[in-house]
Amino acid sequence: MHIGDIAGLIFLPVSIVLFLHAFGAISLPTILGIDILLIAAVGIIAVEVGDAIDSHIKGGSWFMWIVAVFLMLPSFAYFYSVFSPLPEIIAAQLPVIMASFLFVEGLSSFFIGE
């Protein structure tokens, strides 16, 4: 099963759009009326859960679940910011951090796998 690889490929364009928006090259705060950061947060969670499930199916250890939770921290920070404001420095850099995570996961889906 390649759940994480497929999710990584699906959210690779989202990461590129998020990078372009974060650096001011384009102004696209929403896609189809949905906030781009919400799409990125859901994408990170989908990719990491998919990777953890793939690891579990292939006989991996519980350590992958710990790594997946750690890599979901930017998404958790986004959902936390919906209810309570984050420090300004974190809130300003969250789009770049989330775009980086999605971009790396999307690129790794091209090269990692069997």
Q: Give the overall silhouette.
A: globular
Share of helical residues:
over 70%
Tell me the number of helical segments per DSSP (H or I, 4 or more residues long): 5
Whole-number radius of gyration? 14 Å
- SSE pattern, N- to C-terminal: HEEHHHH
Strand-residue proportion: under 5%
Number of β-strand runs: 2
Question: Tags for this entry?
Answer:
114 residues, two-stranded antiparallel ribbon, 2 strands
Write the layout of secondary structure elements.
Elements: H1 3-22, E1 30-31, E2 34-35, H2 36-57, H3 63-71, H4 73-83, H5 88-111
Antiparallel strand pairs: 1-2
Helix pairs in contact: 1-2, 1-5, 2-3, 2-4, 2-5, 4-5
What can you see in these coordinates?
- The chain is mainly alpha-helical and 114 residues long.
- The protein has one domain.
- Helix content is 75%, strand content 4%.
- The chain has 5 helices and 2 strands; from the N terminus they run H-E-E-H-H-H-H.
Short structural summary:
This protein has about 110 residues and is mainly alpha-helical. The protein contains five helices and two strands; from the N terminus they run αββαααα.
